[in-house]
């Protein structure tokens, strides 16, 4: 497992993403939905990975859901960065992380592709997330 550290700009939202080693290139995807296009979200995940998130000031974190309302974008209201996205499916949390928030990954290791989920039904979307998104997710208040 490789440990990747990510943070929003002001460090209010920090995470550790533990994922199996990916060799020389990590697959990442630029989502083509209107929200991701406007904020430049580029994500990666691994079904066997683990994500631990710490919120320093939870009251300064907005959770934004749109469209099918099946995913929450965690937005730091202090600096405006979206470090990760979470989807709760059948009572279990799944997530993807924004590679633009990585602190310890060389950009040359990222292999990007554009994705388009337009036309994907809600059930198909949730099944895809269960197969491909990070399946072990914890989000905690850093000080409690």
If you had to describe this structure to a student in words, what would you say it looks like?
With 144 residues, this protein is mainly beta. The protein has one domain (2-141): Metal Binding Protein, Guanine Nucleotide Exchange Factor, Chain A (Beta Complex), CATH 2.170.150.70. Helices cover 12% and strands 43% of the residues. The protein has helices spanning 34-39, 122-132; strands at residues 2-7, 13-19, 26-31, 42-44, 50-55, 61-64, 72-76, 84-89, 92-98, 110-115, 136-141. The mean pLDDT is 92.
Keywords:
144 residues, mainly beta, Metal Binding Protein, Guanine Nucleotide Exchange Factor, Chain A, 7-stranded mixed beta sheet, 4-stranded mixed beta sheet, 11 strands, 43% strand
Largest sheet, if any?
A: 7 strands, mixed
Number of strands: 11
* Rg result: 14 Å
Please state the structural category. Answer: mainly beta
Report a brief summary of the structure:
The protein is mainly beta and 144 residues long.
Chart the SSEs and their pairings.
Elements: E1 2-7, E2 13-19, E3 26-31, H1 34-39, E4 42-44, E5 50-55, E6 61-64, E7 72-76, E8 84-89, E9 92-98, E10 110-115, H2 122-132, E11 136-141
Parallel strand pairs: 3-10, 5-11
Antiparallel strand pairs: 1-2, 2-5, 3-4, 4-9, 6-7, 7-8, 8-9
